[in-house]
Design a protein that fits this description.
This protein has about 230 residues and is mainly alpha-helical. It is about 55% helix and about 10% strand. α4 runs antiparallel to α5, α5 packs parallel to α10 and α6 runs antiparallel to α10. The longest helix is centred in the C-terminal third of the chain and has 23 residues. The two termini are about 45 Å apart.
Length: about 230
């Protein structure tokens, strides 16, 4: 366990000569532990820097450069992934597919449907920490539409958990009456995933309900980090 905690620190110490060399030569380098990106103005310049870096790392420091991750990319023509972000068109960056997949896996693990919970406490203890951490890290990118989609998906999973926690259809009926539902009361399974998308369930557990129990919305995080974008 200690190895994983101190490895970024060791990498920072060991790769300090790389930072010094890049700064002395006026190159822009962004590095976290042993992952780094060096920005160059031309293809020839990039090729020259790559040769210099490989010589330093493998020749002087005795390290092995990753054969697949180490490459020259024209970001206006080809995206690249760095620290969970995919960068493209020289400016735009958003969570990579792998990062989104890992986030959804964490939410799925936390929101397994075979559980009965107090939804407010469950959101506070289990779900919000996942959303808040991931959203803060990836919220600085261009991810507004993605965050909207993920918010909707998370609410659907929570609606399914609430249905299962209610177990009996009469509890759904009671909630519909409390919110002044005017149509016929439905008869549906409280355990089927598809029913979490029905009009009745959305009426009984509206988005405002998640506000009441203080569910963290990814879109709120995005708007907080980008007030100028609106």
């Amino acid at each position: 366990m200690l190895v994983y905690i101190i490895s970024p620190l060791l990498a920072n110490i060991y790769l300090h000569p790389l930072d010094d060399m890049m700064m002395e030569r006026g190159h822009r380098i962004t590095r976290y532990a042993d992952d780094f990106v060096i920005c160059c103005k031309s293809q020839k310049g990039a090729e020259r820097v790559l040769r210099t870096v490989v010589k330093l790392l493998e020749g002087k420091l005795g390290l092995k450069v990753h054969p697949d991750k180490t490459k020259i990319v024209n970001n206006y023509e080809e995206p690249f992934i760095f620290l969970g972000y995919v960068f493209k068109n020289g400016y735009y960056h958003s969570p990579s597919e792998k990062a989104v997949k890992k986030f959804k896996e964490k939410i799925k693990e936390a929101t397994k449907r075979n559980q009965t919970v107090n939804l407010e406490e469950f959101v506070k203890q289990k779900v919000n920490p996942i959303i808040r951490g991931w959203g803060r890290y990836f919220g600085i990118g261009f991810s507004k539409n993605l965050f909207k989609q993920l918010d909707s998906w998370i609410r659907r999973r929570l609606r399914m958990i609430q249905l299962r926690s209610w177990r009996k259809i009469r509890k759904l009926h009671r909630e519909l009456r409390k919110r002044h539902w005017e149509g016929e009361l439905p008869y549906l399974s409280m355990f089927r995933w598809r029913n979490s998308m029905t009009q009745h369930v959305h009426f009984a557990i509206p988005n405002e309900r998640f506000r009441e129990i203080k569910l963290v919305f990814l879109l709120d995080i995005y708007n907080e980090l980008h007030p100028q974008r609106g």
